[in-house]
Please model this.
Amino acid sequence: MQTPTKTIGLGINSAQLCIYIENIPPLEQYLSLQKVTALHPHDIYNIGQQTGNHWRKIFNVYAKLVFEIGLCQHDTWQNFRDKELLQKHSNESLIFSPPNFDKLDPTRIHIVMGRTYAKTLHIDTRCFWLSKDFAINEGKKLIISPYFDYRQLSNIKVSQLAKLIKKFGYDEYN
Model:
């Protein structure tokens, strides 16, 4: 698979937590992105309203994950989701471009969302499988995790993923 020359996604380009997803919200303003673009307040809500439960779950699980890591300054994961997640003052990104394994920045933490996507990218064989759900490549600070869906990435698995992220030193960046 050829990697695009541009990184396309939501959040900030210098994010320390980069999560890679195979699909894009099916709305024109996101399908036509040419770079990593910060969301504005209410964008997550609007995406959920216009596209349905699938994207709402992804953003909810993402917010729960960052809240579980314990670094956000909000009292609930819902407040973090609505006031900071993937916005210009965040430290996260949701990347729609496939990662280039050989060029991953080891000063950032990279998460490939879904075993199937990792297999498609041929990254699954370059990682050590800790369980059927999680794999890591310590040198690249890469984690393969279940897809951000309540059934695949339950609250218990969100906690497991948060521990792996902390192991890679995410708390040092904030």
About this structure: DSSP finds six helices and eight strands in the chain. Helices lie at 28-31, 43-51, 53-69, 77-83, 115-120, 155-167. Residues 9-172 form one domain.
